[in-house]
Amino acid sequence: MSRRKQLAITERQFEVLSLLWDHGPMTVRELLDQLDRDHPLPYTTVLGLLQNMERAGLATHDVETQTHRYRALLSREQATGTLLSDFVARFFRGSAERLVLGLVDADQLSADDLRQIEAQLAGNPQRAPKPPRARKSSRAEPNSPKKAKRRKT
Q1: How far apart are CA 66 and CA 49, in angstroms?
Q2: Quick check: 52 pLDDT over 70?
Q3: What does the buried/exposed string (b/e) look like for 39-73 if buried means 16 or more CB atoms within 10 Å of the residue's CB?
Q4: pLDDT, position 7
Q5: Do 133 and 126 contact (CB within 8 A), yes or no?
């Protein structure tokens, strides 16, 4: 059975991809000008990073005279979708619901965040809306008993 290739992006690679997505194709020198100015990197480090990104299928280059102009090979949406799918599959057994509930339990999603998510899902004509579920507040009231522990499945 063939497995889908996992996309692994380091923090530095993501920083470079973000610059390429935001500014379009760039040379190594142009990237150097945009990268962290508090901790400048040597030219050869950025060049090596880009060459590794090419081998990984994250970027490619076009030759302009003697200069190479690098560009991202995948869109921000493609990278985000692939990384999230892999993350959900590996850490939440493929359940996006578990991911969201985990974010709620860890106080990373507010009621406003959840309303925005519901509005986005309702506005997406390709998804059949699920019937609304009664949701309990993720935060216990000061004088109320602690919320019941969610059963782990």
Answers
A1: 19
A2: yes
A3: eeeeeeebbebbeebeeeebbebeeeeeebebebb
A4: 67
A5: no
> Which pLDDT tens digit goes with each residue over 54-85?
999 999 999 878 889 999 999 999 988 888 88
Of the candidates 127, 62, 129, 137, which has an alpha carbon nearest to the alpha carbon of residue 107?
A: 137
pLDDT, tens only, 98-111: 998 889 899 998 88
Other residues' Cβ atoms within 10 Å of the Cβ of residue 2: 4
Quick one: tokens of 149?
């522990």
- Contact of 35 with 20, CB cutoff 8 Å: no
Beta bridge pairs of residue 68: 63
